[in-house]
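Margin note from the TA: students keep mixing up input and output lines. Inputs are the sequences; the output is the structure of the whole complex. Example:
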Amino acid sequence: MKCNHLSKQALNIDDDERLLLKRLRSESEKKRAFHQLVDLYKEPLYWHIRHMVKHHDDADDVLQNTFIKVFRYIDDFKGNSKLYSWMYRIATNESKTFLTRKAKRSKLSSRELQERLTESLKSDPYFEGGAIEQQLHKAVDDLPEKQQLVFRMRYFQDLKFKEISEILEVSVTSLKTNYHHAQKKVKKQLGVD
Amino acid sequence: MRSGFRLPDDYFDDFQQRLDKRMDEDKRSSQNNELNVTSGYKVPTDYFDKLHIDIDEKSSFNTKKQWLAMAAILVVMLSVGILTRPFSSETGNMKISDIEEEQLEQYIKYQYMNEEVLKSYAKEQDMQFELNKALRTIDKKEILTYFDDQLNDLYAYED
């Protein structure tokens, strides 16, 4: 099963997005427009964050922080990119910040923290994968940061390369190369060459 | 292959409400974090309104002072001119060696009489009194002659 992805409804919003943005910037409409925005993006953003922070409670916390930041900084959004890609970037940054803080608090390196988080999935009530899934997450953790991001977005979230390219602001060609390398390494780790 | 992650039942059902609650709490706590304690400093009533006026007055006072200083220099220069005129007319094409040392010292002393020196010699009120007195006694013609001379000197150095 692939996780809930960025839905078609959410993606085909070129015109709707403009309207939504307009409402988000209007004092009288802001709250209602924000509710609509949350409804549209809560699931894809949740899964994006969950794959980075791994545990549900942490994902819930980071998702809320992400929406709070979106609400707070919506007036600074200049429209140079798509709204969803801007929100994905906020979610990515929030997740990274969360992990950095957690590592600092636990006096661990980010690498050690990743290992520990993956290891603790065994006892997580919201992880129903077996040893092979855990091994997959471990293999992804071993990838360089950029490849981790691309792999998770493509493999787990089923995002198109074009969408990932807009979110990460990287060319599709570079993403494909990154994904290809990541896939190869993961397969090797799992012994499925 | 599955990721293995799952969601608590009905997680998204109340997400919006929880988010709203969290945003309200954040807002309240940021308001509470603001110290509602004043510095205790007070300014006199209408201080800032009057400050503007004070600045205006001060700046006009400064200008007045500058004019007074300029007038003082003018007076000194005119006095020097008046004092030296008979000497010059009498001497004609006199050489510098013909001038007595004492007279030369007096002349140099007057030349060094600048604004700062004048200020150090007299208090402001005294200086104003002296200046007013001097200005009353100076003949308009003398002032005009002085400036004419200055202009002539100026043009004399032009190509």
